[in-house]
Specification:
150 residues; alpha/beta; Adenylosuccinate Synthetase, Chain A, domain 3; three-stranded mixed beta sheet; 33% helix; globular
Length: 150
């Protein structure tokens, strides 16, 4: 991802720049194709989703659900880098959520997952359903108090 949205996420994410070179780090939307492979290959039984506060203030939040190559939909991560390089991401968009203050996120986290904005809960529910893996840790900010553990 490049452009204004990438810069927004880079800055909001805590200054995503190389420590020595100060080069901008690559940022992008959640890629469920790649994550599906990571869950399978590593035998993951639960997930941690962090930096949900960083996405606050965006109108729409895309999630890559598959790749398209030569008109074909690909839901599993390709074994070949040649195939992968010819793929384009296919996104499903989710409604964004409000840009809360750090103290508002902490107050929400203290109340638990059910207190999260509905759009956040739908986003997390979709991730769980697609990966068939529960999200057990949710982070909505840097402080430890902004983490919800299930």
């Amino acid at each position: 991802m490049e452009g204004a949205t990438a810069e927004y996420l880079r800055e909001r994410g805590g200054g995503e720049y190389g420590t020595t070179t100060r080069r901008p780090r690559r940022v992008g939307w959640l890629d469920l194709v790649m994550l599906r492979m990571a869950v399978r290959v590593n035998g993951l039984t639960s997930l941690a989703v962090t930096k949900l506060d960083v996405l606050g203030g965006l109108d729409r939040i895309p999630v890559c659900v598959s790749y398209r190559r030569n008109g074909e939909s690909i839901r599993e991560f390709p074994a070949s880098m040649r195939v992968l390089s010819a793929c384009q991401p296919v996104y499903r968009e989710f409604k964004g959520w409000a840009d809360l203050t750090e103290s508002d996120w902490i107050a929400t986290a203290k109340k638990g997952k059910r207190a999260l904005p509905e759009a956040v809960r739908k986003y997390l529910g979709f991730i769980e359903a697609q990966l068939k893996t529960p999200v057990r840790i949710i982070s909505v900010g840097r402080p430890r108090a902004a983490t919800i553990g299930r």
